[in-house]
Amino acid sequence: MKKDIKVCRKCRVFVSGKQCAVCGESDLSSTWAGIAIVINPNKSEVSKKMGVDLPGKYALKVR
Ligand SMILES: [Zn+2]
Rounded to the nearest whole angstrom, what is the distance from the C-alpha of residue 9 to the centroid of ligand 1? Predict the structure, then answer.
């Protein structure tokens, strides 16, 4: 399966386009593993670990 879905290296959010909508970086990676969907960042243990404070779809690991 071809992975052409890109993830921001800085905040690990899934990006559709050439720039990250969260931090504005264009440092994207298509080498990632795992998906975490954060709905409620303040209550989520995963988002605390990842340092995420916006709801959205994130990759667990990004290279
Ligand atoms: Zn970003």
Answer: 7
Q: Decide: pTM greater than 0.85.
A: no
The predicted-structure confidence for 10-62, as pLDDT tens digits, reads as follows 999 999 899 998 899 999 999 999 999 999 999 988 888 888 888 999 999 99
Q: Tell me which residue range forms the domain holding 41.
A: 6-62
Q: Is residue 1 part of a domain?
A: no
Torsion, Cα 34 28 24 44, to 10 degrees, reads: 10
**How many angstroms is it from 1 CA to the middle of ligand 1?**
25
53 domain residue, yes or no: yes
